[in-house]
Design the sequence.
């Protein structure tokens, strides 16, 4: 029995900052699942910064969204009907077909979620690739050692807020975060950051020097631009930079200049290394084990910014790009 559902499609490609006109909300007919498939009704979906890059028609590590087609991304859904022995109605599964109310999935594309570990939505936050990104970026790419000082930019976001907490759990002597408001700064201090600053209050380099007067050993970069330049200036010898993202450039319409002090990488013997989550999936099992225990014990806390209704998913995404979230930005369907 087919049913009707809604989905969000890419109506046009943005030039610079996306607008609501770049999205279409469309009513569609949802097919029944075939052999080896299941039909899910989505209850949560994720909006993430990487989605902005996929809205452009250019080569990247993920293929671009197609014009006129439904978007996709992480989601949690309840199984409505199943043509496979692996799942039955009522099961909750994580999958990659967000931005729609109903999705037909192949059995191998769905992962059952364990509701005894954490709330279901945590599987789009700390127990998802977001948490794994923080984990491997800090521990593998930046090779954090106990006693070191860490700086995390965009620290009030989903990845940044977890990175700072993991750093403390792994023995960092000092963890500093940047955020876009005094309210977010206060929340970072409540999460256990040793210092935090509002990057809008004064030049980032000055704020970072005040927050880490003896310098930093590790920089987890989510921003680029003035944050990366400030981090290079404050780096100690043999410092390491894990480049996770550069959100300052995602909506730029002209090339953005690189750090003016990049030559310091030579004299300070710095390592600047970009990374993608897909290169570190072999660490997932160990990560899930540690993160699950941290969540159970309360050693890791996480925040969610929730927007209700699929029709408001584009607004949630635009709000994410403007930094209106603390922690993970989610849409509840």
Sequence:
């Amino acid at each position: 029995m087919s049913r009707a559902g809604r989905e969000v499609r890419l109506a046009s490609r943005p030039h610079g900052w996306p607008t609501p006109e770049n999205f279409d909300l469309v009513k569609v007919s949802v097919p029944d699942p075939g052999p080896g498939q299941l039909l899910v009704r989505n209850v949560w979906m994720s909006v993430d910064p990487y989605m902005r890059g996929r809205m452009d028609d250019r080569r990247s590590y993920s293929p671009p969204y197609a014009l006129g087609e439904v978007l996709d991304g992480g989601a949690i859904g309840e199984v409505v009907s199943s043509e496979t022995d692996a799942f039955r109605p009522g099961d909750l599964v994580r999958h990659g077909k967000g931005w729609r109310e109903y999705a037909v999935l192949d059995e191998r594309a769905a992962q059952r979620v364990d509701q005894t570990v954490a709330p279901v939505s945590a599987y789009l936050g700390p127990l998802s690739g977001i948490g794994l990104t923080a984990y491997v970026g800090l521990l593998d790419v930046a090779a954090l050692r106990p006693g070191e000082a860490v700086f995390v930019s965009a620290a009030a976001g989903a990845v940044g807020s977890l990175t700072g907490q993991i750093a403390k759990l792994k023995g960092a002597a000092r963890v500093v975060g940047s955020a876009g408001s005094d309210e977010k700064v206060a929340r970072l201090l409540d999460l256990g950051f040793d210092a935090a600053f509002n990057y809008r209050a004064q030049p980032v380099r000055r704020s970072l020097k005040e927050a880490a007067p003896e310098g930093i050993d590790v920089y987890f970069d989510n921003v680029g631009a003035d944050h990366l330049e400030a981090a290079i200036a404050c780096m100690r010898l043999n410092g390491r930079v894990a480049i996770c993202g550069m959100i300052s450039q995602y909506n730029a319409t002209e090339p953005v200049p690189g750090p003016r002090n990049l030559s310091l990488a030579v004299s300070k013997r710095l390592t600047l290394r970009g990374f993608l989550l897909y290169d570190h999936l072999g660490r997932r099992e160990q990560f899930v084990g540690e993160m699950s225990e941290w969540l159970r014990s309360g050693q890791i806390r996480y925040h969610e910014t929730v927007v209700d209704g699929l029709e408001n998913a584009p607004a949630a995404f635009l709000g994410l790009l403007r930094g209106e979230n603390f922690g993970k930005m989610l849409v509840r369907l």
Q: What stands out?
A: The two ends are 22 Å apart (CA to CA). The chain has two domains: 3-125+302-332, 129-278. The mean pLDDT is 95. Residues 3-125+302-332 form a domain with the Quinone Oxidoreductase; Chain A, domain 1 fold (CATH 3.90.180.10).
